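Render this sequence as a predicted structure.
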Amino acid sequence: MKSMKRIAVIAFASMTLLSQTGWAQSDSTNKVKPEVNALSIGLNYMTHGEACGGGLPKGAVEDKSYFLLGRLRMNVDYERPGLQAHAVFQNKSIWGASGNQALNLYEGWVKVTARNGLFAQVGRIALSYDDERIIGPNDFSVAAKSHDVLRVGYEGHGHKVHVILGYNQVGDNVYKSTYYDGGAQVYKNMQTVWYHYDVPKIPVGVSLLFMNIGQQAGTYKTVNGQQVEYELNRPRTEYQQVWGGYLNIHPKNVTVEGSYYRQTGKMVNESKYARTIKAWMASVKATVKPAEQYGITLGYDYLSGDDFVPVPYGGQVGMPNHEVEKGFAPMYGSRAKFYGIMDYFFESAYINGFTPGLQNAFIGVDCKPIPKLSCGVTYHYLATATELQQLNRTLGHSIEFQASYNFSKDISLAAGYTQMQGTETMDRLKQGEGSKRARWGWFSLVVSPSLFTTKW
């Protein structure tokens, strides 16, 4: 309730402050210029297909799958000086699936901007910051992510400051409406501050990020002197903090990126148990483009893991409890961009509930043989961050091929193929998911025409 009151107060104060700045613009004769209104409507249709093989748990009926899905978005945009409104309606469906697939609101927000750089934005927003490692739409997942938030800030003179506030609920019930579980986002409330500065006259940008995330936890019920389960009618909110920074140096033909983040506070798992978290990650990536037609990328990611990771073979045995979680979670980022496009390590959990962390060393080559065609190949060496007993840290090797072709400004086709070879370590930690070669191919046809545009 306190979080909701704060958001309401900040929203009212922001709108009041912005309204006092005025939107009238004067020419040399001090006459008010007429406003220009713009309205546009567009479609974004994607047909996406996947073929998968191997890398499934032992005992699976089949070790392969094939499917097609379609995603349709309708975009509506309105703009005049000082005001923007944006809505995206989305439908996603698997070819051949029974039942009606719902049409949902992927984005829907309004934004008020003052001439001095202040702005206020409220609604459902697809947030994207820096390289999208911590906060990004993760659009490759097809459905993508968006957040119901209030965002206020300032942009000007090389500085950007954003304050993001969110409070989530699953319904408008008068009674029993304080417990939040199973909603669109995993957090009950969220407060984020992001600051970015572009250094003048030199190609350097630096960002700082702080997030405070409140998640709903339960309370233990004691039976015969032992804590056995949670009483969800006595909920509490536990808070986790994520903070760090991002650096981008981009002189001519070279781009160097680096990031460092820490996680502290309490992490709430699926059973609503809150555990102390002390985790961190670091990354560095360099891209060199000697010519416009090709480039080379080198990089390394390190995500911390638990101190001790049991590696039972054939079942979940010998699972000691750990009070402190040291495995870094990638939060709300676009994960397929960083740890392999299969998202093999954070999409599914390890068999024993512990996290061995991840080391990802990669090298990639991109080329553009003809103006409309782009191709690339990337190799990943994958290993645990935690030292394992009687097992090598190496998880496996992955190689990815991708290509895209732009038929026109609103029609494009992209395709890719990934081959992963797991090791015994992968087999033990995933219980069969790495015992065979994992293969994955995909394609995406995107058509995004502009249907209507007018100004008055």
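Summary. Residues 22-30 have pLDDT under 50 and may be disordered. The first helix runs from residue 2 to 19.
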